[in-house]
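input
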Amino acid sequence: MSLSDKTKEIERIKYVYGKYSPHSSKWSNNNIGNKLIYEERFENLKNLLELHNININNSKILDAGCWMLDAQGVIFLHHF
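output
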């Protein structure tokens, strides 16, 4: 991917995510649907770890799957 294409893609992502309001109840941790999604994801991950005998106690884990853009368009990781 060329630098120009990368720049265009970054701008596209900023535009799309910029339309989401961080204060929207749709994304709130108090939203019952979001709570159910979290619980289901947690249980599925726990079951997978147990199935494969993976112990993550005392492990450092980076979850880079959840990020946002700040007001200046800088990407940062969002921790719940």
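quick obs: The radius of gyration is 17 Å.
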